[in-house]
Design brief:
Length: 511
Amino acid sequence: MDSWLSVDVSTANVLSRDSRGSVRGVKTTIEKMPDKVLLKIFSYLSHKQICSMSRVCKKWRTIAYNTSLWSSVSLRPEISGLHVTSLEFLLSLISVRFGPSLRYIELPIELITHTVLHELANRCPNLTHMLLDFSTAMQLHDFSELQAFPTKLRYLCVCLSEVIFMEGFMRKIYNFINGLEILHLIGTYEKVEEEEEEIYEVINVHKLKSATPNLRVINLYGINFVDDSHIDAFSSNCIQLECLAVNYCSKVTGSTMKTLFQRSKRLRCLLMNQTNLISEYVMQVEWEKSSVQELDISGNDLSTECLIDMLVRIPTLKFLSAGQMNGFNDAVLNAFMEQGNVRHLIALNLDYSDNLSDECLYKFLSRYGHQLQGLSLAGMPHITDQLWNTVLPVLNNIIIMVMGTQERLSGNVLVDQLMDGIATNCPRLERLELKWDPDNLRFSDKSQKAIDIFRVKCLKLKCLVLSDGRYYEIVKANFERADRLTVVRTTTCCSVSNYYLLQNYKDLIFN
């Protein structure tokens, strides 16, 4: 039985009074606990653990079958979901366990059939969120008999295949998805080789946009065929659009951005990380008339002139991510300070901006650091712990910080002093990442005391990411002794981002 049951609840001594009023000890067992208490305990378990617990006894099996425990289900075992071995077993699950309580489900390609979709439509009337993973498909099931599909969907995520054309399936569901508010189309960016012979448009975006007029959030991630015409198509039909993300869509150049903002008056979040924006197109946008508040243009080759022109014209910018850009230099940051509207800015990411001087960054942070909730200045060897220690007293509202570089430095980082400064000045801190090479971190025999102070003062801390090494092991052991087991993580499996501060962040979680 799992460790969560290791508490002495099975043989607990309970005080009660007999008929004459005297106190006596009564032994009880977990089997005598009320069902609603057991149900609450089970609600903290994963579905894999619930399935294991269901084999303990008949009572626990009944609790495990309670449909309230099955409102959100993943059937993708490679993404920590359940492994369903047959369609027959899934159909029985839908009828016995899921039912009206099911609100979210993730299905892998082998379980996406017309029979399964019919059952979900008929037996799960409250299903509003669905993920369909076609990414590993080499061929689709036959959907010619598909006559029903969940009709109350508000969120749909489709993981695309590299080679399988989806139009046959999509044509069958167009009439059922006009209530969608959030759409994710996830491409195969990580799998694409540098020299691709031919790019297939595996889903017809132009037809899809006609079937989904109520979209508020559109996320097109890493799709190699998506270009500016697809952005134009969505903007022509989705007047409710608030958030558009086209990260890692390398064919997007920005040629339809002007039209996008003219049509989508409510668009406040635009994420275009690692696209191929052209300065001429970006400068044509009427930024001063836009409602954009959150902007990610990282990894684009925009000129200094373009960046200045854009940043001084945006009326209310709250979130800016502009890392990995040679054109982002002191002239841009100074123009933003002197001519732009910076007083609403709460999140800034300038990672790998080597053309920014520490003097200019100090000037900016001294003036506006008090209002920042997210700050990421990673990947710049000249931004050392000395600058951070200097500006930390101003960063008293910071929630997210990313600092350091993986490059070996000539000098060393005095990490004890840095952690003490963070603990003293940043009580609201929730996420922190130190990217410095472990060989550059210098700490003393009294390091445990500095970590103790940091842990005690930063009580809201959810995530601390460090490079593997001796300091990582010391910090991890310290937090684990205080029963904060999940806080300290390594850069090999975790990274911190300002994206947590996006207004639509929860809508943008897709995998």
